[in-house]
Design brief:
alpha/beta, 4 domains, five-stranded parallel sheet, 16 helices, 19% strand
């Protein structure tokens, strides 16, 4: 370990910045955020940097660096493009025992700036010791996805009650269990959901020894069309903390693997004419698990509110007074179309888009076909594999040109993605010549012809 990570308290303390350009400005912003007073020395100083120094009651010296500038400072930043000057500053600073950072010169530094995730008062810092700063920033970006901005509010709330909890629970192990329950339970979720007052009230009740939080909570989370990279930050966070996971067949295995390892997993998938678990039973299962005090993740492919029956599930939860959250997901139409290189709207070809269920019931598909005849709209049919011949037939019969471009996307956004393109006249026959596996999505409209120009996803190259 070349550098020992330490956090330096700089409030109202003087820090010297030598340099007045963009690099100096970036460092100065971090120092100002930490409450430091800045002394900036340079023949020329950017206006933004001058303003920043003025806001913090610092000083700007429009001249070259002098050794006397080190007087009274607790940290030095050398941010000039003069390498000999930077080296001189480093030697003088270290001879006086003052921490010094020379930008882009790790060997001249006694301290370095890490990549920072700021959730004040919670701070996370990542460093490569100056060897690979870009990699450190990439790691920071990953951490940013794991820690929502509201963690700072949660940390501040914990600080408010820390002394009371320490007095209530003198044993360290007891306090650890107490705070783990706070940070992973309903109190934290209230804060994350923007209900800070509710979270504070619940914590007050917990500290006062009030009634335990008997009810659990249900997270209705959209898992997107298949690629784990399309999950939202909030979805991933809830997946990592749920006690029980109910998932359907449209959720890709790679996404399920991102759930908490020790969570109970329950398959409730449905496919055509075969329901592993009836919807009514799924609804009741969610209620029963929440009443046991568990955090229940209902993981659904795509978006819960677009042909996902999410409305039915939360209606049942609301009827029983069960707390719940709904996390939108990227619906299959958006995800699959993007990965196939097919824009759903385009100024020259389609000014509107309609999402339609192509799932057949009793061998029929009762849809307003006449409304679909307009050539300037894109039609997206979910679950349309089995009904594809009827869909194409009905669209042509109600006025859509038989030469209208059409595409069927198999398992979009995943490694198994295949895209079949043709027209309303021949797409059904083309698909019938191949072994196609659900889930699938059908796109009808002039925008399909743009696919040859715009396809970018390597999985989309498997095309017919």
């Amino acid at each position: 370990m070349d550098f020992l990570p330490l956090f330096h308290k700089l409030q109202d303390r003087l820090v010297l910045v030598v340099g007045g350009g963009e690099v100096a400005l970036r460092k100065a912003r971090l120092l100002a955020d930490a409450g430091a007073r800045l002394r900036v020395v340079a023949p020329e100083v950017r206006d933004e940097l001058r303003e920043l120094v003025g806001q913090g009651a610092g000083e700007v010296l429009l001249r070259s660096y002098q050794p006397g500038d080190l007087s009274g400072v607790v940290l030095i930043i050398a941010a000039t493009d003069d390498e000999p000057l930077n080296a001189q500053i480093s030697v003088q600073a270290q001879s006086l025992g003052i921490p010094v950072n020379v930008v882009d010169a790790p060997k001249l530094c006694s301290v370095i700036f890490p990549a920072i995730v700021d959730r004040s008062p919670l701070i996370v810092a990542v460093t490569s010791g100056g060897d690979a700063p870009v990699l450190a920033r990439l790691i920071r970006a990953k951490i940013e996805t794991w820690i929502p901005a509201t963690y700072g509010q949660l940390a501040a709330l914990a600080k408010k009650f820390r002394a009371q909890v320490k007095g209530l629970l003198p044993d360290v192990q007891q306090r650890r269990v107490f705070w783990e329950d706070v940070f992973q339970g309903q109190i934290a979720e209230s804060v994350f959901a923007g209900k800070l007052q509710e979270g504070e009230r619940l914590l007050e009740e917990k500290v006062a020894g009030g009634a335990p939080l008997a009810l659990g909570e249900v997270y209705l989370v959209g898992a997107g069309p298949g690629d784990p990279d399309l999950l939202t930050f909030r979805a991933l966070r809830l997946m990592q903390q749920a006690d029980v996971v109910l998932y359907d067949r449209l959720v890709a295995p790679a996404i399920i693997e991102l759930c908490r390892r020790d969570a109970e997993r329950i398959y409730v998938g449905k496919q055509r004419a075969e329901h592993a678990v009836p919807q009514e039973q799924i609804n009741q299962h969610l209620v029963n698990l929440a009443k046991e005090g568990k955090r229940v993740l209902r993981l659904k492919g795509g978006d819960p509110f677009i042909f996902g029956r999410g409305g039915e599930e939360i209606e049942e939860l609301a009827a029983h007074g069960i707390p719940f959250q709904v996390v939108p997901g990227i619906t299959a139409a958006s995800g699959c179309a993007a990965y196939a290189g097919i824009p759903l709207t385009h100024r020259d070809y389609a000014q509107s888009v309609r999402f339609v269920t192509g799932h057949l019931k009793n061998g029929s598909c009762n849809l307003p076909w006449a409304e679909f005849a307009a050539p300037s709209q894109t039609l997206v049919f979910y679950m349309g594999l089995v009904g594809l011949p009827l869909i194409c037939q009905q669209l042509i019969a109600h006025g859509r040109s038989a030469s209208t471009p059409a595409a069927l996307i198999q398992q979009g956004t995943t490694r198994n993605q295949r895209v079949f393109t043709g027209t309303l006249a021949n797409l059904s026959e083309l698909v019938g010549q191949h072994e196609v596996h659900a889930p699938t999505l059908v796109i009808v409209g002039e925008v399909v012809q743009l696919r040859d120009k715009l396809a970018w996803f390597e999985g989309a190259q498997a095309q017919i």
